[in-house]
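REQUEST
  id: r-88c1
  op: predict_structure
  target: Bifunctional non-homologous end joining protein LigD
  payload:
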Amino acid sequence: MAKKVPVKVEGRELTLSNLDKVLYPDYRFTKAEVIDYYSRIAPVLLPHIEGRPLTVKRFPDGVTGQSFFEKNAPEHTPDWVKRVNLPVPGSTKNRETINFAVVEDLPTLVYYANLAALELHVPQWRVDDDGEALPPDLLVFDLDPGPPATIVECCEVALMLREVLKAEGLSARPKTSGRKGMQLYADWDCREEPSAYAKRLAQVLAKEHPQHVVSIMTKKARPGKVFIDWSQNNPAKTTVAAYSLRASEQPTVSTPLTWKEVEDCERPEDLVFTAPDVLARVEKRGDLFGRA
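RESPONSE
  id: r-88c1
  status: 200
  body:
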């Protein structure tokens, strides 16, 4: 029988379970350590996801087991967890609306960590106090390397993209994806539809650097190049949140970077950060992903 542990987090009563279950077998990283990581990283993580409808990727049997994306807040979600009911046109499950959770406090974050929701994904827009969707406030470019290209090549493209955005009056912030690629974010002023804008910039770079950059999704066009995925700006899409764990062999994290780290990257290993690494980074440097 699963061992359950009652706890109180900021006045909220929670029941944690299976704390000794190993979720990252190669690293012997347990659910207790996942909950500990999210609890300790919360001060810098929460500001980046507050107000944003949450999609999680859950791994109840660890990263080597079955996983599933979950948008709808589970039926057993505590009533104190903030939820917003939003339309989801084109839902693959033929639902007109979904009850999304919005993670804005430590108890909600711990609740989801206890569900083995290792990955947190959010859109580039927030909701207002009435639960209505606001215009997008972020622009994102997802840089995905086609093997044998790696994050080293992503860094080269990120530097090109930084200059393009700078010329447009936008200041870019880099982070690793926590897997093989990286993302660039910029605060967005709604000067036009963000996906169309991002696509146009990606196409410009692909035209100027055809040996290094591709802006189309066709898999066969990607080997050895970096795909600038502009489509994450679609309001229906989400991107992994800054400081979210990823379901890799190690408990890697989508980690905010300095531009010097991007400039100096010579090997993929240079930009691999695990949960303990990121906690140490934040203690030393604070939130590198603060608003530009």
